[in-house]
Write a structure and sequence with these properties.
The protein is mainly α. The protein has helices spanning 2-26, 53-58, 71-75, 80-86, 89-100, and strands at residues 31-32, 61-62. The protein has one domain (2-100). The longest helix has 25 residues, at 2-26. It starts with a helix and ends in an 11-residue tail after the last helix.
Length: 111
Amino acid sequence: MVPVFFAFRMRFYVAWIAAECGCIAAGFGAYPVAAKARAGGGPTLPCAPPSSLEEAAALEYDYETIRNIDCYGTDFCTRVREGMRYWNMTVQWWLAQYIYKTAPTRSYVLR
C-alpha cells in the first residue's frame, strides 16, 4: 500500500509544481520579497513600484502567491488541520475568504 499511495501523491505533486512553473514562466504572481506575499492572497504590505529598470532588476522577487502546495509540510505534518493548510493552499485561502467567513455563524442543524 505504501508504494501505491506514494505514487498517487507524487502525481499530484508533479502536476501542481509543473503548473507553478508555468505560472512563473509567464510572470504571474511575482511580488517583491518586501511585500510579504501569501499563497492565494497576494501582497500583505504595500510596496512602491520601482522608479527605474535598474531598480526593478535589483529587487528580489518571490512567487509565493501562486504557490499551491508544500510537499514537505503535507507529508510530515502531525495533525490533519496542518495537512489541509499545506495541501492546495490557494484554494484553502479562497474558501476561507469567500465561503467560511461569509457563512452564518450559527449552524442550522436539526435537533
